[in-house]
Amino acid sequence: MNGLEIQNLAVTLGGNAILRDVSFTVEPGQVVGLIGANGAGKSTALKAVLGIVEPEAGDIRIGDQDVAALAPRERAKKLSYVPQGAPVHWPLTVERLVGLGRTPHLTPWQEVREEDQAVIRSVMEETDCWHLRNRLATTLSGGERSRVLLARTMAVGAPFMLADEPTASLDPLHQLQVMDIMRGQAACGAGVLLVLHDLSFALRYCDRLVLLHEGGVLASGTPADVLTDAHLETAFKVKVARWSEGGEQFLAPHVAGG
């Protein structure tokens, strides 16, 4: 299986052009960050790849397969998704909710198998939510719910994982744990596509970045290529302070001219 390729993607919603001529690739083993100001089209790009919104134009392929032509179950096996701030309406236990991630691998009415249960426990332990397994999902805090939904997505075992701001609502420790998990998914061969707002996380954790601006690609490449002063001032209207500590690089934005 080759990379996830997005070519010349265009999306119009409600008569407004949200994306135009957007192209990038997510290779297996890579973490690719989608960054940009609010309204740049980042979440829409993820939803177009997943088929949640219908593109006006463009091709989305995994290797030689047209993603749009895949049956829903086959698409679900290849592309998993962590939505941003998704509510949970069903009074399911947390363990049962995470177990829904195994659905694409089961036939209708098939019980969860022993191997599925092993996957469920493994991903819940990795996301620090195994201790929540008997709680009703509707009683979780926002941060707990985010970790549980990440575990559900990991349970799919898809070769490509898409996540929309996976660190939102999390405390600093769990933000770092989630980003380490994303890197771990890539280290195991998955292609990971993240929507991020934290520029330090984008710099430290991503192999490649795609900077969206006004619906198009302003810059694409390594973090060093994309996170230039000129690009950040154009896209975000900010300047940044840069430093390194313990071999890690950091940046902090401040208002341009401030």
Automatic annotation (TrEMBL):
<dbReference type="GO" id="GO:0005524">
    <property type="term" value="F:ATP binding"/>
</dbReference>
<dbReference type="GO" id="GO:0016887">
    <property type="term" value="F:ATP hydrolysis activity"/>
</dbReference>
<keyword id="KW-0547">Nucleotide-binding</keyword>
<feature type="domain" description="ABC transporter">
    <location>
        <begin position="4"/>
        <end position="239"/>
    </location>
</feature>
<protein>
    <submittedName>
        <fullName>Iron complex transport system ATP-binding protein</fullName>
    </submittedName>
</protein>
<dbReference type="InterPro" id="IPR017871">
    <property type="entry name" value="ABC_transporter-like_CS"/>
</dbReference>
<comment type="similarity">
    <text>Belongs to the ABC transporter superfamily.</text>
</comment>
<keyword id="KW-0813">Transport</keyword>
<dbReference type="InterPro" id="IPR027417">
    <property type="entry name" value="P-loop_NTPase"/>
</dbReference>
<keyword id="KW-0067">ATP-binding</keyword>
<dbReference type="Pfam" id="PF00005">
    <property type="entry name" value="ABC_tran"/>
</dbReference>
<comment type="function">
    <text>Part of the ABC transporter complex HmuTUV involved in hemin import. Responsible for energy coupling to the transport system.</text>
</comment>
<dbReference type="InterPro" id="IPR003439">
    <property type="entry name" value="ABC_transporter-like_ATP-bd"/>
</dbReference>
<dbReference type="InterPro" id="IPR003593">
    <property type="entry name" value="AAA+_ATPase"/>
</dbReference>
<keyword id="KW-1278">Translocase</keyword>
